[in-house]
Amino acid sequence: PPLGLDRMLQLHKHLRNIPNIEVLNLGVSADKSITIRVMLENPTPLRSILEDLPEVETVADAPQDAEMTTPTKKTGERTPVKRIIVTTKK
User: Fold this and answer.
1) CA–CA separation, 8 and 74 (whole Å)
2) Residues 6+ apart with CB under 8 A from 16
């Protein structure tokens, strides 16, 4: 669905100001959705945090690809990637 860029930028700003969340980048996916990549160094209730933000309407776990991993920047070890789908309010 069409996305409100202003809502996504506000979401990006909120995420940048939350301790334990490092925002890596903001981009556009192949399906034209907006992606915000974050890294969590410590266990953090990200879904709960997202659900409490004023611009967020719904939060859902995306289906996981079994082999989806990314290297950590400190050790280079590969860690699993989890995707969360956020729908913003209109």
Assistant:
1) 28
2) 23
Q: Which residues of 3-24 are buried (b: 16+ CB within 10 A; e: fewer)?
A: eeeebbebbeebbeeeeebebe
Query: The tokens of 59 are what?
Result: 């939060």
**pTM, entire model:** 0.74
Contacts of 20 (CB under 8 A, 6+ apart): 40, 41, 42, 44
| CA dist., res. 25 & res. 40, Å (int) | 14
Break the chain down into helix, strand, coil percent, rounded to 5: 20, 35, 45
- Residue 35 near residue 11, CB atoms below 8 Å: no
pLDDT in tens, 29-51: 777 788 899 988 888 999 999 99
Q: Which amino acid is at 87?
A: T
Tell me how far apart the alpha carbons of residues 19 and 41 are, in angstroms, rounded to a whole number. 10
